[in-house]
Design goal:
It is built from 23 helices and 14 strands. It has helices at residues 2-10, 14-21, 55-64, 78-83, 113-118, 121-135, 146-151, 155-166, 183-197, 223-234, 248-253, 265-279, 291-305, 308-336, 349-359, 374-378, 390-393, 413-421, 448-458, 467-475, 494-509, 513-516, 520-523; strands at 24-26, 70-75, 107-108, 139-144, 169-173, 211-217, 237-243, 259-262, 283-285, 340-344, 363-368, 441-443, 462-465, 480-482. The structure holds FE-MO-S cluster (CFM) and 3-hydroxy-3-carboxy-adipic acid.
């Protein structure tokens, strides 16, 4: 691995190489599960082709985008709204034919030169009024793109004014694309906004003995539908998901749940922490990607509620689902064992999908996140040591206090002790590196150049990344799976999802069609042209 790292850095100027060296780490897990430090959540070096997106994408596209009945208006030029419109394949299913579903619409103020010069507040006000007149939604959210911050439109003042005027909830996000170093800042801004303006508005207590929220699951390719089915079969009552297959009403009521389950730690840990402080809801990290991870997570939930009937039902569901998984897994493993994958995705999937690959005997030669923080790599134990730089300080940290009337203790200190003895730690996450073999390369914010170099060196059987990387990887003859949108596939979550994934990966790594394709200039060399200087 040392030689590979050297080769990746060799081509960079000294200063760049020095910085990248801190983000390209050879994994080494100590006996106490300690791992090396990795630099992350810092600015990408200008000139480097990054996988990252912007703060607006993290706020509007990722966290709020999957909710079906809030009219999400992008205040800005049309491209930002258009590109964040369903490209993520977040699905939704309204409860009835009269329920709102605005997911098929794309709302934007379509900012023009005139607004850039004279201000865009008037056009924003008009857009909100127009959306209200046509659709009569329960809530309207406004998302700021880069020019909004640059010209100084006060989106929050407009939101307050229109909330008053229309009598529905209107709230705004200062999630300008440049606000942070990546999508990650947008997650934080979205978490703050939804917690401030939506969570806790409806105190209705619903039926159900075991009330949970699912945080950081966005129903890409129908994942949430699979998980919801399991919850139902186990007898768990899902109050709200943030935000896959969700509705505004679920958010307003989510503080009545008794446990928060965190799927994607990176994008939503802030809401979990704030809900714990204000309402007393504990959280646990779970993972529904992979069959054994799903079983483990269901057992964790049952353990938390300390209820024999629930535990029995969970075991029944696992016993019912597992045989089908095992059958496909065993068959696929005969063809996939020993094959090698690389994963460079977002802020949680590069970790979650490793187990799914290992279930069919595949090896991860290298992995990394686009925009995760050190705790997602090294575990939450490093939280106190993370330096808060100017870019993170730029994102507001809300000051939250226990709600004088609605804070409720869910779990006694004795019970916490009991759970810890069985290995169930509340509000904890060990991160990705602790589960990766020693000697594997962990790379933060990988560049296009490094990706191509790694493919050349490792010749992996499959690479998982996003749309910008897809075609360059396929041109190298390597199968490529998008772990963001799942290409056209999914669901991959829970038991049925695992079966889908095994089959898909089997198909891809054992039929390397890309290797047999030739580019036009390779097939017809006479087409190749050389530019001749005059
Ligand atoms: Fe969380 Fe996500 Fe991800 Fe993410 Fe994303 Fe996504 Fe992702 Mo794309 S919230 S961090 S900002 S799991 S959109 S559903 S696939 S990069 S790994
Ligand atoms: C985003 C969304 C994205 C992009 C995926 C990709 C997604 O970060 O803005 O690059 O292919 O999952 O849709 O992560």
């Amino acid at each position: 691995p040392m030689a590979v790292k050297k080769e990746l850095l060799e081509r960079y100027p000294t200063k760049v190489a020095r910085k990248r060296a801190r983000q390209i780490i050879i994994n080494e897990v100590g006996p106490d599960c300690s791992v090396p430090e990795i630099q992350s959540n810092v600015r990408t070096i200008p000139g480097i082709i990054t996988q990252r997106g912007c703060t607006y994408a993290g706020c509007k596209g990722v966290v709020l985008g999957p909710t079906r009945d809030i009219v999400n208006i992008t205040h800005g030029p049309i491209g930002c709204g258009f590109y964040s419109w369903l490209t993520r394949r977040n699905q939704t299913k309204p409860n009835g034919p009269t329920d709102h579903n605005f997911m098929t619409y794309c709302f934007s103020t379509d900012m023009q030169d005139e607004q850039i010069i004279f201000g865009g507040e008037k056009k924003l006000r008009q857009a909100i009024q127009e959306a209200y007149d046509i659709l009569k939604p329960k809530a309207i959210a406004i998302f700021s793109t880069c020019p909004v911050g640059l010209i100084g439109d006060d989106v929050h003042a407009v939101a307050r004014e229109m909330k008053e005027k229309l009598g529905i909830n209107v709230f705004a996000f200062s999630c300008e694309g440049y606000k942070g170093v990546s999508q990650s800042a947008g997650h934080h801004i979205a978490n703050n906004g939804i917690f401030t303006h939506v969570v806790g508005l409806d105190d209705t207590v619903s039926e159900g003995k075991f009330k949970i929220n699912l945080l950081g699951e966005y129903n890409i390719g129908g994942d949430a539908f699979e998980i919801e089915r399991l919850f139902k079969d186990c007898g768990l009552t899902l109050i709200s998901t943030f935000s896959g297959n969700s509705s505004y009403d679920y958010f307003t009521n989510s503080h009545t749940a008794d446990l928060n389950l965190i799927m994607c730690h990176r994008s939503i840990n802030y809401v979990a922490e704030m809900m714990e402080t204000k309402f007393g809801i504990p959280w646990i990290k779970i993972n529904f990607i992979g069959a054994s991870a799903t079983a483990k997570s269901l057992r964790k939930i049952a353990a938390y509620f300390e209820d024999a009937e629930l535990a029995a039902r969970v075991e029944e569901v696992i016993a019912r689902e597992m045989p089908a998984v095992e059958e496909v897994r065993a068959e696929v493993k005969t063809r996939c064992a020993g094959k090698r994958a690389m994963l460079f995705v977002g802020g949680s999937r590069a970790h979650h999908y490793q187990e799914l690959f290992r279930e069919i005997g595949m090896e991860i030669v290298s992995a990394g996140y686009e925009f995760a923080h050190r705790d997602d790599y090294e575990g939450r134990r490093v939280l106190p040591n993370i330096k808060v730089d100017a870019d993170s300080r730029n994102i507001e940290e809300l000051h939250v206090e226990p709600d004088p009337n609605r804070y409720k203790v869910r779990i006694s200190p004795e019970q916490i002790d009991r759970l810890e003895k069985t290995g169930l730690r509340l509000k904890d996450y060990d991160g990705m590196m602790a589960e990766m073999p020693n000697g594997t390369l962990v790379i933060d914010d990988i560049s296009q150049f490094e990706t191509e170099k790694l493919i050349e060196i490792f010749r992996p059987d499959i690479v998982c990344a996003g749309i910008k990387e897809k075609y360059a990887i396929q041109k190298s003859g390597t199968p490529m799976k998008q772990l963001h949108s799942y290409d056209t596939g999914g669901p991959y979550a829970a038991f049925k999802g695992a079966i889908n994934f095994y089959r898909e990966i089997d198909r891809m790594v054992n039929s390397k069609v890309w290797k047999y394709l030739k580019a036009p200039w390779q097939e017809h060399p006479e087409l190749a042209a050389t530019y001749v200087w005059e």
